[in-house]
Specification:
Shape: extended
Number of strands: 0
Number of helices: 6
Keywords: Membrane, Transmembrane, Transmembrane helix
Strand content: under 5%
Radius of gyration: 20 Å
Order of helices and strands: HHHHHH
InterPro entries: SpoVAB
Protein name: Stage V sporulation protein AB
Distance between the termini: 49 Å
Helix content: over 70%
Length: about 140
């Protein structure tokens, strides 16, 4: 019985390591980390960025698996939501940049002058959708 649990644990750990490695490779392949370092002029701290991403993945997995509670309340939840939204937005923009979606789309529709309004509209729509979802979920 215990041998089966050990084998399952090894398989689970190995699978998680492969998935996490793929995720971090994808981040690096998109150039997301180097773009952040370039835009913030903090290229000398690139190893700190990579360590922070790896540590974030490890800690999130531990919190998720062991259901660790963080006694910080709504403030930390709102802060986490803000940073998660920024991160997901950066992912989406990096993917779109790699695929050259926006230049092709803008050229085809001839909407060069309306780009700022489109970006603001997307941001407001995402914010409104998140507010509707979370406020409805909390019963506010």
């Amino acid at each position: 019985m215990w041998a089966e649990q050990i084998v399952l644990g090894i398989i689970g750990f190995s699978s998680g390591a492969v998935i996490a490695g793929g995720m971090f490779s994808f981040l690096i392949g998109l150039g997301l980390i180097s773009v952040f370092a370039d835009r913030t002029h903090t290229g000398k701290h690139i190893l700190m960025y990579e360590n922070a991403i790896a540590l974030g993945g490890i800690l999130f997995n531990l919190f998720f698996i062991y259901q660790i509670k963080i006694p910080a309340g709504s403030f930390l939840l709102a802060l986490f939501g803000l940073f998660s939204g920024i991160f997901v937005g950066c992912w989406a923009m990096a993917l779109a940049d790699i695929l050259n979606v926006f230049p092709i789309f803008i050229r085809r529709l001839k909407i060069i002058k309306t780009i700022p309004y489109i970006i603001i509209g997307l941001s407001l729509g995402k914010t409104a959708g998140a507010l509707v979802y979370f406020l409805g979920r909390w019963g506010v």
